Sequence to fold (126 residues):
Amino acid sequence: MTAEIRVIVTQYYDRKLNKMKHKARPGLILKEINGDYAVIPVSTIPDKRRVDPYYDIPVTTRDYPKLNLSQDSYIRTNKQTVVNQAQIGGKISDLHAEYPDLFSQVIDKIEEFNDSIIKELRDRLT
Fold:
């Protein structure tokens, strides 16, 4: 399952209804952790002001047709989360198999983001 884009059921807060809701969306599986999975979202981001120009990697349906995404999206490398296996649905595509260069770029951005967190935390110790 690692490196696959799958349907992930995630929770979000609906401001209009003032309550938590769920939606299915694409997510990239990073790692299995005792029945849970580290994932990052693959999102459309309708409000372009919310796009991180550095960490959000654009994936268009034209440039990456084998990803089988229904809309142009972004792989959000700085939005990692952990979900239970029960929240993971069907396979959409295999990012590593179809676009290894893009997969490598995603890994590099994840690593860079995580390193920046560790550095900031270590700096607090000194």
